[in-house]
Amino acid sequence: MISISKKAWTWLALALAVMCAAPWLFTENQYLLRVFTLIIFWIGMSGCWNLMSGYTGYIDFGPVVYFGIGSYVTAIGMTKFGGSFFFCAPLAGIIAGIVALPIGAVALRLRGAYFAIATFAFAESMKQICLEFDRAFGVSLFEGSHGITLPISSFENIFFYYCILIVTFAVMMIHFWIEHSKYGLGLKAIHEAEDSAEIAGVNTMAIKLRAYIMSAIFIGILGGIEAYWITYITPSDVFNVHKTVQMVIMTLLGGMGTFFGPVVGASFLTILSEVLGTEFVENYLIMVGAIIIIIILIMPKGIVGTIKEKKNIRFI
Amino acid sequence: MEVMFQAIINGLLLGGVYAAYSAGFSLIFGVMGVVNLAHGELIMLGAYTTYWLFDLFHLDPYLTLPFSMAFLFLFGYLIQKFIINRVIEQPHIMSYILTFGIHLMVANIALKLWTHDFRTITTAYSGMNAAFLGVNIPYARLITFVLALLIIAFLWFFMNKTETGRAIRATAMDKEVARLMGVNIREIYAVTFGIGAAITGLAGSAIAPFVIIYPEMGLEYTIIAFCVVVLGGMGYMPGALWGGFILGLAQSFSATYLSAGISVAITFVILFFMLAVRPTGIVGKGLVGQ
Amino acid sequence: MSAILECKEVSKNFGALAAVEAVSFHLEQGEILGMIGPNGAGKTTLFNNIIGVYKPSRGKILFQGKDITGLKPHRICRLGVVKTAQIVEPFRAMTVFENVLVGALHGGGMRMKEAAGKTDEVIDFVGLGGDKHKPSGAITVPGRRRLELARALATNAKVLLLDENMAGLNPNEIEEALILLRKIRDAGVSIIVVEHIMRAVMGISDRIVVLNFGAKLAEGPPREVMNNEQVIQAYLGERVSAMMSETL
Fold first, then answer.
1. Which residue among A30, C131, C174, C204 has its CA within the 20 to 30 Å range from the CA of A263?
2. Measured between CA atoms, how close is A250 to chain B, in angstroms?
3. B54 min Cα distance to partner chain A (Å)
4. What is the pTM of this model?
């Protein structure tokens, strides 16, 4: 690894300690705890998108498919097979990863808009499959548009906070590793000039695929946790393109391919959407659309990326 | 047997509809390399133009077509000129994230203005069919089918026989050379987007009499347009017809013999498959994007 | 001297266009082979076939006796054959050091510490020591050419294919580039040089291969090749060639 300063390690340990202690400040106010959890959740989600699209530059418009797969694996595992949450959630990630392998192997041969639409098409197909599968094959597995109700947990909100924190922390550690490793340098080379990278010895397909699968695994686990937390899932919820939009815009705003990008973007936009009120999601989306346009025109590297460029610094 | 004929006719008519509103998408990509993810919103705006003119002024839907075309031409021209033109020198992914932002803004502003309510247009002749050899051919769809052919024909004529059209083709082939020849690239792009938007708005108006109109309708159409154009070959105009027919027939047959839900899934499966196996389209004349 | 790289009847078709037509030649261990030919002769396409960017329609490519035809470029790089591009593409967001490091890590298959050492070594070898931590977009044109070379060398390349590496250089810079090329050859790397600057190619090459319309016209020592009638015709046209043979 490129040398990581003692300072960086200390900051990281401090951040982790703060994150672990934080929810105890909110026990009085469950609403704030929920918002805080939501922020950590979206840092994790957009972090996953950043791992793949932020670093490689391959804009993925279908990451929500792994969220949905994770949700369904957990839901079906717990309701139809009586599995425990602690088994089903990690399983959700594993199965998401297994699905990601062939899909990524095919999709990553495409570039630009073609890759984006292929991933989007896959996500929409999975949604349709979950909606139509039972009816088409005469079974009772996905429950179509009725949705699946998971067993109600006896756990408090704080339990889910920690589950999500673990995943998000893992995602951020992977970011950290990417910023300092041979693998990460390969990713960045692919982003800059993929053909030159390949000729210089970078196994571009393997590296892209690894990023895609890692991203899928953690999105899948988050899908599983979320399913257990909200207790009821339907295909149009868990495969909703809105989640993809969130991941994209948060990373874009924060800065694609940076360590702090997802943190900044997710925090800012989660708070913004709470402020604007979840009642009229149109308002939020109009803002999001405007932010996207402004970012692309003025600050394509996002907040963190632009700061890094202007001041020529490395944060971590 | 009749069932199969009906399925074929339905498929072809549906294909015509698809071709009509996908041609603009192919044009914009072919000339500028921009994948317009706000494409569906152009259709939505065209449909709403027709709806409001019909609802407020009692204009027959087919009389609203010129208004829709003019409005969408202006809309598209301005968007390209002042927004999208700013990123044309950058990697293409910038342009489609940008158009995605435009999609979000336009769809949600429309939602605020016009609410979630589904709207439909019912005229004296809605639902009237021609009956031919035991199959039903709804007039509205037949008109749209003819319109699709007219649009493609118009585009061919415009691109090959007019000076602006030739400038557009030159720009599409080699931007730098065209620039050296004195072509104002940004202006050409703005006009091209305007034309693409106009014919798409036209299609949106033409389908308004027989589809459900609501602000979020756009995304679904963008997906279909993309599928049609990938099937037929990106940037290859007649390909919109090929792609439209193939998709229309595939959907029609799966809806007739399997289920409506499956036919939607079919679209995505076909799209994914085409992208994986033959991104240059069925006839192989498509431009594969960077 | 044994052949380190060999092309046997390599052909590449793009649809109906035969870009490379049954080209056979070899590169000796430790030599500098010049490759010349008019624009569009197929030199770049041939290079791309050798390093795996394209798969030859027919024919074989052997490296150190092993068949490398159709392998993926990154594998061919790791085996020891690397190309520099006609249009220089540094990893713009990275520094000079990081650019070369990519080559050492991935192409050279080294671990971080070893790769960093190799990177320093190579950067000094090509003379970019002073620019080491500058962003690669901020160095001069000749500097960028040397960066390309450095990245290729960091992969522990045994064969280097240089595609117009001297384009855009002034005469002084060309002299320096030639000196560097000899240094590289003396360090044990075999090189194929594609250039349009005749003086440079003639001066540095042990042997020359001439391509035209995708086919090989001639192969041999510089003097011999330049007096070959077909070669003269290809470059100067039939009329001039006829004129020359009349006056001589």
1. A30
2. 13
3. 26
4. 0.88
The pLDDT of A129-154, averaged and rounded, is 81
Residues near B156 by beta carbon (within 8 Å), at least 6 away in sequence: B237, B238
Average pLDDT over residues A104-129: 87
Shared domain for C216 and C114, answered yes or no, is no
Summary mean pLDDT of chain C: 88
Which residue from B219, B190, B245 is spatially nearest to B28, judged by alpha carbons? B190
> Among partner residues C82, C108, C115, which is closest to A199 by beta-carbon distance?
C82
Q: Is residue C22 part of a domain?
A: yes
Highest mean pLDDT among B16-25, B172-181, B262-271: B16-25
| Residue A31 CA to its chain's centroid (Å) | 23
Q: Answer whether C91 touches A (CB < 8 Å).
A: yes
How many angstroms separate the CA atoms of A12 and A176, rounded?
Answer: 10
Q: C94–A188: do the CB atoms touch at under 8 Å?
A: yes
- Do B219 and A285 meet the contact criterion of CB atoms below 8 Å apart? no
Residue C45 domain boundaries: 1-80+158-223
Chains touching chain A at 3 or more Cβ pairs under 8 angstroms?
Answer: B, C
Q: How many domains does chain C have?
A: 2
pLDDT digits (tens, 9 = 90+) for B215-256: 988 888 888 888 888 888 876 777 888 888 888 888 888 888
- Two structure tokens written together for C77: 């790089």
| Angle separating helix axes B139-161 and B163-173, nearest 10 degrees | 80
Render pLDDT for B268-282 as a digit per residue (tens, 0 to 9). 888 878 877 877 776
Chains that touch B (3 or more CB pairs under 8 A): A
Residues C190 and C215 in one domain: yes
Q: Which residues of C touch A192 (CB under 8 A)?
A: 89-94
Pairing of strands C190-194, C159-163: parallel
pLDDT at A243: 93
Kind and range of the H or E run holding B130? strand B129-132
Partner-chain contact A252 B90, CB within 8 Å:
no
Cβ pairs bridging A and B (under 8 Å) = 128
Domains of chain B: 2-277 (1.10.3470)
- Specify whether the CB–CB gap between B20 and B261 falls below 8 A: no
Query: Are C132 and C89 in the same domain?
Result: yes
